[in-house]
Specification:
Helix 2 crosses helix 14, helix 6 runs antiparallel to helix 9 and helix 8 packs antiparallel against helix 9. The protein is built from 18 helices and 30 strands. It is an alpha+beta fold. The protein starts with 12 loop residues before the first helix and ends with a helix. It has a seven-stranded mixed β-sheet, with helices on both faces. A five-stranded mixed β-sheet has the order 27-26-28-29-30, with helices on both faces. The chain binds one RNA strand through helix 1, strand 5, strand 6, strand 17 and strand 20.
RNA sequence: GCGGGUGUAGCUCAAUGGUAGAGCGGCGGCUUCCCAAGCCGUAGACGCGGGUUCGAUUCCCGUCACCCGCUCCA
């Protein structure tokens, strides 16, 4: 992973692209007139077309062009148990900590854990920062660390639960602080803030009766009781003997007790917005298997919205809390998952490159063992070289039989396939009943939109008719992705040319090809505008059209024109779109 | 969330403690036979809230959003 992109993007490409997206109607900030909503974006008229086209291409390739993949369209809200079974309720929450010195945020479970007795040097980025941090530490914690270049020393891991400051030559620490056993990963600082859980799932309440009514009433009653713990115990009965409520009561902390009580009171109404579309494919595995006539190896595909409370959102539509996925769960025989992984890796990479001007910007990256999600035993990302460096676009994960087994265990419903023809490799007996292994190509649809916008964004130096230099901006979108396929332009707004243009556009619409007539401003401006929104072809109606029934057909990328008969032009474009 | 930066028409920018201009773009009209031509007209902005002040777009505070970094992952 590099943080310096080597891809040859124009200067400030993101800034220009975001501006173009707004100006031309691809992407707007959500709720902009009210000040905007963090990381939420709306797709305008052109963006909606682009996203639909991209997703339609995926569906066509993954579902319609294969006889062993079927699609579903599941609800976003699922039974809460789904997320407990899948591990998202527990595992999708990361313990995050802020370093009080460097201000870095990191995951506690991945931080280095020095041995008891070890020195805890803080390695600062440079001498200047070292001086600054040493002063901060002195001011805030009252100890003067020794400073040698960019290293601050004198801190030591005193025990598993304490670290301290040991002045040079001293045997015992002059001062100690509580410690959770790890240090900030980049600089090694042990001065850390609290560990906080970030649950990445969106919660919502299901049901027309607001659970807060009951919460308010119960809290009013419980807090009036002289002995809160006793009142809570009698209200919740056995629930008070387990889980968060039990530990809260033991702690004696009123705040924690009330917090746990609220959790229990609201639990019956709590639901989650799905953090991935995948789980519906596992949960409906049996229904699809029985109704579709499929048998392994086969896939279930789905496109749709998912929601995650991302810790940080960034890079325009790259990471947002509400996003759209294109996922497929491919169920295969245990033992064949490696071959299928190879197959889907190839398929998916080919698909991404098919629509790209810069196929070299796509690359695989295999996950290291320690970065695999809780459900995966192997994973390859399709990375794209964004202007800020490589980043994920699609993850192709080997999810083993984890999900189906989890749901089988928790639902009590067998989620297996019985192969009448094959013998169980373990027993040698027919039939073989097994839990399929799963390969999951999971692509970001909204990321795909950004990727193809970036891939298509081109700037060219050109000289105007007046002899001035200027930049021609062209969105070299693949014709199948382009929002508008054909611009139909009367050369001038007279002599019946606008009417002729309308008639030609109608021919395209009748064939389901999106064509727009544009008769505003000069012909040059109209060409430039359509170049900028990625319209691959422009048809111009001129004087000759009215005489011999031919038009000029202009290519967006070369700006070259050929004369074709009106009668043939729709078929010609239709054929180009098929290619 | 933390640290740093930013916030003036659709876009790119300007000016100002006395309520704001331009270029491009938009809309309407005229003109125009091929790559952002010209003419006329027209609409449109100080992110939001509070404070200081006689008066705030300008100074202060808060908030919201965006950008960069940390973390995350489709």
């Amino acid at each position: 992973m590099s943080d310096q992109s080597s891809a040859n993007y124009p200067a400030d490409v993101m800034k220009k692209l975001i501006s173009l997206c707004k100006q031309r109607g691809f992407v707007f900030q959500s709720s902009e007139i009210y000040g905007g909503l963090k990381s939420a974006y709306d797709y305008g008229p052109l963006g909606a077309e682009l996203k639909r086209n991209l997703m339609a291409e995926w569906w066509r390739d993954m579902v319609h062009s294969r006889d062993n993949v079927v699609g579903i369209d599941a609800s976003i809200i699922m039974h809460p148990q789904v997320w407990r079974s899948s591990g998202h309720a527990a595992g999708f929450a990361d313990p995050l900590v802020d370093c009080l010195v460097s201000k870095e945020r990191f995951r506690a479970d991945k931080a280095p854990r020095p041995a008891v007795g070890a020195e805890l040097p803080i390695t600062c980025p440079d001498k200047g920062v070292a001086k600054d941090w040493a002063e901060q530490i002195e001011k805030r914690f009252g100890v003067a660390l020794e400073r040698d270049g960019n290293i601050l020393s004198g801190l030591k891991a005193v025990s598993a639960t304490e670290f301290g400051f040991v002045p040079k030559g001293a045997a015992a620490p002059a001062q100690v602080w509580p410690w959770r056993g790890y240090v900030e990963p980049t600089f090694g600082s042990p001065f850390l803030g609290d560990e906080r859980q970030f649950n990445l799932m969106f919660r919502t309440a299901l049901g027309s009766v607001d659970p807060m009514n009951e919460v308010a009433a119960e809290l009013a009653r419980l807090t009036a009781e002289p002995d809160l713990a006793a009142a809570v115990k009698s209200r919740f009965g056995r629930a008070a003997d387990e889980g968060a409520l039990k530990t809260a009561i033991e702690s004696g902390d009123r705040g924690r007790i009330l917090r746990a009580a609220i959790e229990l009171l609201t639990a019956p109404a709590m639901a989650y917005l799905r953090p991935e579309t995948a789980q519906a494919m596992f949960v409906q595995f049996k229904n699809v298997l029985e109704s579709s006539g499929q048998k392994p190896p086969f896939g279930i595909a789905q496109m749709g919205k998912s929601f995650r409370n991302e810790i940080t959102v960034e890079h325009f539509i790259f990471r947002s809390c509400e996003f759209e996925q294109m996922e497929m769960e491919f169920f295969c025989e245990p033992g064949t998952q490696k071959e299928w992984m190879q197959y889907w890796k190839d398929q998916r990479m080919q698909w991404w490159k098919r629509y790209a001007n810069h196929p070299e910007r796509f690359a695989f990256r295999q996950h290291a063992k320690d970065e695999l999600a809780h459900y995966a035993d192997d994973c390859y990302d399709v990375d794209f070289e964004y202007p800020w460096g490589y980043g994920e676009l699609e993850g192709i994960a080997s999810r083993t039989d984890y999900d189906l087994k989890q749901h089988e265990k928790n639902s009590g419903v067998k989620l297996r396939y019985t192969d009448q023809e094959k013998a169980d490799p373990a027993t040698g007996k027919k039939p073989w009943q097994y839990t399929p292994y799963v390969i999951e190509p999971a692509a970001g649809a909204t990321r795909g939109v950004l990727v193809y916008l970036l891939d298509a964004y081109h700037e060219e130096e050109r000289t105007t008719a007046a002899g001035e230099k200027e930049v021609r901006t062209v969105l070299k979108l693949h014709p199948r992705l382009a929002p508008i396929k054909v611009a139909v332009l009367p050369l001038v707004k007279k002599d019946g040319m606008p009417e002729k243009a309308d008639a030609i556009a109608a021919l395209f619409r009748a064939r389901g090809i999106l064509a727009k007539v544009d008769e505003k401003a000069s012909i040059g401006k109209r060409y430039a505008k359509h170049d900028e929104i990625g319209t691959p072809w422009a048809i111009t109606v001129d004087g000759q059209t009215l005489e011999d029934g031919t038009v000029t057909l202009r290519d967006r990328d070369t700006t070259e024109q050929v004369r074709v008969a009106v009668d043939a032009v729709v078929d010609l474009i239709a054929r180009k779109l098929q290619a």
